[in-house]
TrEMBL record:
This is Glycosyltransferase 2-like domain-containing protein. Coiled coil: none annotated. Pfam families: Glycos_transf_2. Signal peptide: none annotated. Residues 196-303 form the Glycosyltransferase 2-like domain. Gene3D superfamilies: Spore Coat Polysaccharide Biosynthesis Protein SpsA, Chain A. InterPro entries: Glyco_trans_2-like (IPR001173), Glycosyltransf_2 (IPR050834), Nucleotide-diphossugar_trans (IPR029044). It comes from Brevundimonas abyssalis TAR-001.
């Protein structure tokens, strides 16, 4: 087993230098492969080495669940002793939260409460939250008490106060906070260089008005809003226009045929004029200070690219996370970048149906360096938790439970494309529509 361990590759992964880790032998280290989310390769390596599988049980469980072998993962997990770290419980949480709870021996009451709630033990979760603190505990309380405004309001406030942001409040106080029923107080109006906000949209009429207003109501006032209707078959474009209410900053771009979210983004990107470009999905509500916060952090840290986190909320106001906890998750749809250098060196999004926002983010990290691309812990958006989204649907996302095989294969292929071009960065610049490697058929339109 010792011959498979590669501390240099693991260090490079911690430094977010994925391609360098692959170049330094990560392919020979199943733990490194798991941490790179190359789960098929990790599973095969750990299948061949039972000693490594026992030594690194979390990586074993992740690789099994990611490759559709959840039953084997759960059987293996039952043989393990509880651990004080989060990782084992989190690896199990989406598949068997009750089992995950028995494997967690740590002190984090908010994680324990989240597992209890996912296992259907609401009363136990409430008791655990009595001793929990921090934003994750606050968001769990907001979710549990979503139909009680007197309790939910303070919980939302406690959660967002960790980032000195005003909390979302319900527009209609008779209903819980959701993407279509949220407002917040922004800071004073901010002026500065132009930001191009790009929103692709298809058949999102239920959410699109709230999404559009959340962009136009940003405290950062100098923006152009490029809304791309991707050949919707509902009244999506009409609702977006109505929500914009004649605002001259809003531009509707109509696609004559469906091309997918990344093709739509590219259509807008070709027309963007802003110093920065920000993207947002049409089933998301953005905090009114989202853009101002991102610009401030980018300026302070001299970043080329930045993204934040989201909370996923269903129509009834319940907060969800694919892995149960934490409830705040990285949201590639909060991407903001400097337009001129990124277009010069990275170019356009890869035009597939799903997963290309991850590829683009890691392409930027590789081209500009980890210090020039940062992910904030700040929750900048509320996103709709729904079964038919790109990440929720069975054919394009994780709706079947665990990782979707086509997305997993796509992750592998772009990872190796990046790695092959570690010393030829100019190859990573994509023109719109370019297909530099073979993608799974199901995610190619």
């Amino acid at each position: 087993m010792s011959g498979l361990m590669n501390p240099i590759a693991r260090l490079l992964i911690r430094q977010r230098r994925r391609s360098a880790a692959l170049a330094m032998g990560a392919l020979r280290d199943p733990v490194a492969l798991s941490r790179l989310e190359l789960h098929r390769l990790a599973a095969r390596a750990l299948d061949r080495d039972p000693a490594a599988a026992r030594a690194f049980p979390v990586e074993r469980i992740r690789s099994l669940t990611a490759t559709g072998r959840a039953g084997e993962a759960l059987d293996f997990a039952r043989t393990l002793a509880p651990r004080p770290e989060h990782d084992l419980a989190l690896a199990l949480s989406a598949f068997d939260p009750a089992l995950a709870l028995t494997k967690y021996a740590g002190p984090d009451a908010s994680l324990r409460a989240a597992l209890m709630l996912a296992a259907g033990c609401e009363d136990d979760a409430r008791r655990a939250l009595d001793t929990a603190s921090g934003p994750q505990a606050a968001f769990l309380r907001a979710s549990l008490d979503r139909h009680d405004p007197a309790r939910a309001g303070p919980a939302w406030r406690d959660g967002f106060s960790a980032w000195s942001l005003s909390p979302p409040e319900p527009v209609d106080p008779a209903l819980p906070v959701s993407v279509v029923n949220a407002r917040a107080d922004g800071s004073l109006a901010v002026d500065g260089p132009l930001i191009s906000v790009i929103m692709p949209s298809r058949n999102a009429s239920r959410w699109v008005a709230a999404a559009v207003r959340s962009v136009l109501d940003q405290s950062w006032r100098n923006l152009e809003f490029l809304f791309v209707d991707d050949a919707s078959t509902d009244d999506n474009a009409d609702r977006a226009l109505a929500a914009a209410d004649g605002d001259p900053r809003f531009t509707l771009i109509r696609q004559s045929a469906r091309g997918g979210a990344y093709t739509a983004r590219n259509a807008a990107l070709a027309r963007a004029k802003g110093h920065w470009v920000a993207v947002q999905d049409s089933d998301e509500w953005a905090h009114p200070d989202r853009l101002a916060r991102q610009v401030a952090e980018m300026r302070a840290r001299r970043l080329t690219a930045h993204s934040g986190r989201s909370l996923r909320v269903d129509a009834e106001g319940e907060i969800h996370a694919r892995g149960v906890w934490p409830l705040t998750r990285w949201a590639p749809s909060t991407l903001m970048f400097e337009r001129a250098p990124v277009m010069e060196r990275a170019g356009y999004f890869h035009q597939v149906l799903s997963g290309a926002d991850n590829e683009y983010w890691w392409r930027l990290v590789q081209l500009f360096g980890p210090r020039r691309a940062a992910i904030s812990r700040t929750p900048l958006i509320l996103g709709a938790w729904r079964a038919d989204s790109l990440t929720g649907a069975k054919d394009s996302g994780f709706g079947a439970g665990g990782f979707n095989l086509d997305r997993l294969i796509y992750w592998e292929r772009w990872s190796f494309w990046h790695a092959r071009n570690l010393r030829t960065p100019e190859v990573l610049r994509l023109e719109a529509g370019a297909q530099p490697f073979r993608s799974p058929k199901k995610i190619v339109l």
